[in-house]
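Q: Structure tokens for this one, please.
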Amino acid sequence: MTRQDLERLVAQAPPEDLPRLIGAFEAARAAAWSRMVALRAPSAEAGPDQNLSVEEAASRLGVSKDYLYRHADRLPFALRIGRKLLFSARGLEKWNTQKQRC
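A: Here is the predicted structure, written as tokens:
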């Protein structure tokens, strides 16, 4: 799909469908970021990754804990173990670096 195809889709979508369309775009964007991060996985020499708590991740990103809970399913560095939510320190740093370049 080209950029022109996406622009045409947005231009032709009924206004009531725009929120759902935006959600689909955001999900695709998150999946693409996740794939990019996975493709640039660090080498074994970098040492073990560290799992961060919600508080630590929120502090590093400068966002609220609530934001992380609400968006965890779209963050490629989020990890759920049962009901516990953790974040990959290495994944968080890579994602944050990539976001700053945009």
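A few notes: The helical segments are 3-12, 18-39, 54-61, 65-71, 89-101. The chain has a mean pLDDT of 87.
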